[in-house]
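During the second year of the project, the team shifted from modelling isolated chains to modelling whole assemblies. The rationale, set out in the original proposal, was that interfaces cannot be judged from single-chain predictions alone. As a representative example for this report, we include one of the complexes processed in the last quarter. Its constituent sequences, exactly as entered into the pipeline, are reproduced here:
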Amino acid sequence: GQQVMQIPQYQHVQEGEDFTTYCNSSTTLSNIQWYKQRPGGHPVFLIQLVKSGEVKKQKRLTFQFGEAKKNSSLHITATQTTDVGTYFCAGQNDMRFGAGTRLTVKP
Amino acid sequence: GAVVSQHPSWVICKSGTSVKIECRSLDFQATTMFWYRQFPKQSLMLMATSNEGSKATYEQGVEKDKFLINHASLTLSTLTVTSAHPEDSSFYICSARAGAFNYGYTFGSGTRLTVV
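Output from the structure prediction step:
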């Protein structure tokens, strides 16, 4: 079945630094979704990418979907302490999640 | 926006007893719900897909007789952990999609189960 790999597993940054997490699928995805889970909380939907090569922005967050629709990335510009949490990608095909990237931000 | 209400938020039970977790879609109908299990600092592991009016689809390695799923209505899905053991202690969470194709999935707030 579909498997979504996500790297890195952990990322610790200084506040103001940029952050990127990557998702790679072994199969072509119909679309990909990104979620954020704050410590102790539940995942919250961020965005869905559908089109090949699609790029979407939400303030300091930039989401990309690869041309082959097998990989995706989430980039945060100038991280803030409010960005702390685990970021997951999920292939729409069957809603299996990547391992997640745990982001910590040092003030 | 779409809300999925999950209860209880936490539960402690004795080994050998059963625990029922409920997920309700409050302002939309959910023909499909997903049940996940999450260990500390790990990803969400899909356990099963709950389908209204039919049998749930379980992921490989998930015991269907141990984790009973019932999706009897368009707004309610339940997960019952039967004969719970300490190794079943975990965070269980459900999700459903409120609307059309471009909607994300809404998650319940999760249930932290501790089996003693």
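The mean pLDDT of chain B is 92. Chain B touches chain A through 19 residues (CB under 8 Å).
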